[in-house]
Amino acid sequence: MSTGVLEGKVALVTGASRGLGAAIARGYAAAGATVICAARSVDQLADVVASDPARLSALELDVAAPDSLQPAIDRIVAEHGRIDILVNNAGVAPAGDFLVHDPDVWRRTLEINVIAPMLLAQAAGNHMVATGGGKIINIASTTGVRGKPGLVAYSTSKGAVMRFTESLAAEWARHNIQVNTIAPGAFSTEAQKAVTDDPDLLHKRVRRIPAKRMGDPTEIVPLAVLLASAGSDFITGSTYVIDGGEAGKL
């Protein structure tokens, strides 16, 4: 049943086939929004869309293909009349020794984690300006707050996302477009399966978190809904860390 705080709004969530993206998409639908769930394959989105087919729909979109991003936004506007909310969630997190990192890995990481959100924000922003405003939520990471060894490219890209958020928020405030970042820490998602399935690794990971547990994907939803709703109309350019206290103790 809809809570109504996003009733009548149209949202695009990238990387919505699993994990935090899927949780946010479902949460927006529960809050009343019409949600376009994007992923590289429509088949990957079947379970998410099936949870509320009246409000959730699938869109095949590879954010690594820059020429596909503007047409995707235009298609959403053509079909739904508007786009009010953009959640840039799709991303990659390559790990490795920086001494031997392939520059192509860096290029791909920046293309997906930084360039794609920029292009989608630009495309959606043009429509938001025309309709009087909107919300852009970029999903970063606590590794963008404090760099992490073994994840240099990822940490760099997520730090860039935070600076992008601040700059764009300042530039677009006059258009009534609010731009904010969510920086999650350790959540029990498919991406963390290697950790959650190994008791020793899980113990070591949780030991570093003051809350002594990993987050459940649904716990990001209230914050994501707030930043997409009228309740955040005077909130812009901010990064919200949600990590059980881990970044604060580093």
Describe this protein's structure.
This protein is α/β, with parallel strands linked by helices and 250 residues long. The chain has ten helices and seven strands. It has one domain (10-249): Rossmann fold. Helices cover 43% and strands 15% of the residues. Strands 3-2-1-4-5-6-7 form a seven-stranded parallel sheet, sandwiched between helices. Helix 3 runs parallel beside helix 4 and helix 4 packs parallel to helix 6 (152-172). It is globular, with a radius of gyration of 17 Å. The mean pLDDT is 94.
Task: Please summarize what this structure is.
With 250 residues, the protein is of the alpha/beta class.
Biggest sheet layout:
7 strands, parallel
The proportion of strand residues reads: 15-25%
**Low-pLDDT regions:** none
Which fold does the CATH topology refer to?
Rossmann fold
Number of domains: 1
Radius of gyration: 17 Å
Share in helix: 40-55%
Distance between the termini: 40 Å
Topology, pairings included?
Layout: E1 10-14, H1 19-30, E2 34-39, H2 46-50, E3 56-60, H3 69-80, E4 85-88, H4 103-131, E5 134-139, H5 142-145, H6 152-172, E6 177-184, H7 193-196, H8 199-207, H9 221-228, E7 239-242, H10 246-249
Parallel strand pairs: 1-2, 1-4, 2-3, 4-5, 5-6, 6-7
